[in-house]
Amino acid sequence: MKKLIFLSLTAVTLSSCNPIIKKLYGIKKPDIENRELITKKANKFGLDTTNIVSVSSADFPYIMKRVSVPNASIFDAQGKYVEYRLTDTSCNKGLFDFIPNLNLITTYNKPDSLSLQQQWPKYRDLNGNKLSLPEPADFYVLIYWNVWTGKLNRDHVKIWEDLARANKNCRVKVIKVNLDIQDYWEQEEKEKWRKAFRKR
Asked: Cα angle at 86 between 84 and 88, to 5 degrees?
């Protein structure tokens, strides 16, 4: 339900007839972003800038079909996906309780459909370079975010990151996956996605 509300809110605020709501949430139309702009926005929202990755243009459609923003995916030390939602229709609200309670004792629901090893090659640094595997951890929390959702980054992404950092039950590694249109992409891909987003 919260996801539906967010999508509706996004659709409404991106329209020209609601400039007040758009300004209030700091939501803007998606645009092409680069390392400098993404880092600047991350600093504005109080986010750690050392753990931000992006998505290659080839894999961007795959990721966008499977995640909403802001949201997160959780993986265990072996790279197995950990399902935090109680049902397929549950919203991201569950992350506020799930992240601080991650531990090495609880038995988690781990569907076999997704692994960190499968996902990792899709990610790049903010200059478009391939990444080394992340350092060992008990859990990996991949938080999906973008610049244009404005205040939601402070209300969700920063809180989730802080909750993971404060978790003393285990080692939690946060990786923030930026889902903006990246300046390092091929020109044709950049323009294609900018036009697609601005039609919404």
From this structure: 95
Give the chain's length.
Answer: 200
Q: Which residues of the chain have pLDDT under 70?
A: 1-27, 87-90, 200
Q: Closest Cα partner for 92 from 3, 4, 179?
A: 3
Interacting residues of 190 by C-beta distance below 8 A, sequence separation 6+: 32, 57, 181, 182, 183
Radius of gyration of the chain (CA): 17
CA 69 to chain centre: 6
Interstrand relation of 123-124 and 81-82 (parallel, antiparallel or unpaired): unpaired
- Residue-wise pLDDT for 91-150, tens only, equals 788 899 999 999 999 999 998 778 999 999 999 999 999 999 999 999 999 999 999 988
Q: What torsion do the CA atoms of 57, 179, 6, 102 make, to the nearest 10 degrees?
A: 120
pTM, 2 dp: 0.85
> What span, in angstroms and rounded, lies between the C-alpha atoms of 109 and 86?
9
- Residue 185 has a CB neighbour count (10 Å cut-off) of 21
Cα–Cα distance for residue pair 156/135, rounded to 1 Å: 24
Query: Rounded CA gap, 23 and 36, in Å?
Result: 23
* Cα(81)–Cα(74) distance, integer angstroms: 6
